[in-house]
Write a structure and sequence with these properties.
This protein is an alpha+beta fold and 297 residues long. It has helices at residues 5-29, 97-132, 138-170; strands at residues 53-57, 59-67, 72-77, 84-85, 90-94, 173-175, 180-185, 192-193, 198-215, 227-232, 241-249, 259-266, 277-281. It has three domains: 53-61 and 205-281, Efflux pump adaptor protein, beta barrel domain (Elongation Factor Tu (Ef-tu), domain 3); 64-94 and 172-199, OB fold (Dihydrolipoamide Acetyltransferase, E2P) (Beta Barrel); 97-170, Orthogonal Bundle (Helix Hairpins). The protein contains three helices and 13 strands; from the N terminus they run H-E-E-E-E-E-H-H-E-E-E-E-E-E-E-E. Strands 1, 2, 4, 7, 9, 10, 11, 12 and 13 form a nine-stranded antiparallel beta sheet that branches. A hairpin with an 8-residue loop joins strand 10 (227-232) and strand 11 (241-249). Helix 2 packs antiparallel against helix 3. The chain is elongated.
Amino acid sequence: MIPDKTMILMIIFLLFWGNALWGSMSESTLPFDLSLQRDFPLVPEIESNRVGSLRGVLLPIEDVRLCSKEPGILEGYTVEEGQVVHKGDIVARLNAEEETAEVEKATALIKGTEAEIEHARAEFERIEGLFREGISSKKQYEETKFQLSSAQSKYDQAKASLSAAKSKLESRVIRSPIDGIFFKKLKNPGESIERFEAIGRVVNTKELQMVVFCDAKYFGKVKVADQLQVEIIDGPSSGRQTLATVVHVDSILDPISGTFRVKLLIQPTDFIVAGMSALLLLPEEGTAKRNELSKSP
């Protein structure tokens, strides 16, 4: 049976109407317009209410995550959060029963080889004297000489074994690589630690750093050693200002964002501490004023 024209037109109309309805429903269910998406910049945006100001965060000059060289079970911490630590101080320990046993074994082996050396040396000196007098044979002389050399070789091997055992034992302790403050524990005693997994943080807050990304119009106008004003914008110190010294300026522009990176150092005070947000106040004329800004009281 061949459908007539009316049936064909009705089918075409229904298909067209259904497709339009489906399209409108699909658009209405989208959470947002995909065409409006954009990559948000990784840098703070310029404050709209302050001309020539860039927002950043004051960070410790050093912030180190302490990691374990070897996997194991965290035995415990030797310092508490907020405690001052020095470079080389032990901060935490992993379980080390096997490594301790290896050190003891290697130490005992060294003592045994030392006794062998003393005995072999005494015998060699006795035979050497007799050999010079023509009483002892050359064969006896060579044998005692070989025994002394063999004992010395065993001693050297024992020392190497002890050194390796001590190195393994040392890998079970975690030391601070810097002077600073033990800021935070990241694991609990008894927990399993993977190799190179962080167990804590040590920060050095003797100086603070701030990194901002400047617009291309300031390129070549902000230079190393420039002193610029920084204003704290959060916390009880909001509104206070201090000086920041430029210590690094990128030599090229980022081609994607059209910005360049500037790193500044700031001296901490009772009211300026790490973690605060701040504004870098750039001169409106776009040129850095050197040593003209004074620190606010």
